[in-house]
Amino acid sequence: APAVHDVSVDSVSVPCPVLAGPSSYSVAIQLKNVGTVEETSITVSLTHAPPGGAPVIAVGTSAQLTLGPNASAPVYIPWTPGTAAGTHRLTATIPAVAGEVGITNNTRFIDVVVELHDVQVLSVTAPASANIGSGVPVTVTVQNNGNVGETTPVVLIAQPPGGGPSVNIPTQSV
User: Fold this and answer.
1) Which residues of the chain have pLDDT under 50?
2) What is the rounded CA–CA span in Å between residue 42 and residue 77?
3) What is the DSSP letter of 57?
4) Which of 24, 67, 112, 162 has the smallest CB count inside 10 Å?
């Protein structure tokens, strides 16, 4: 039987959740030699397409590895998503090996939703004065600047003039 040269990217995965920011995540790429002969000097490269049509970024390339017929191996490439929330596309690609004809399985991608947790207090309003022992309305305006629904406590602390003891006002979740 003639020799068959065929390597593939079987899967690409990232541990979830992925948070926007400077943290690095290990992208697991499963490679396989689906051919009938040993393949040497196999590498895989990883690219990152941020949301919103931003230019594709080269993330990294693996060290060279050798795979025997029907053998597979994981490769790990670190990726830092940056500060853009939304769907990021990670694409793993193996260059064609010598004699390889079917290269459609040499590329695989995964869409990763990068979460941004960012709740901001926009304003706090209250009357300038109040009578001792009476309630006053306090309005707190918050905004979710992220892409994840949030439930967060808002804690107000009243500090009387003249340095008296502070008073915790009951917490409200928003």
Assistant:
1) none
2) 15
3) E
4) 162
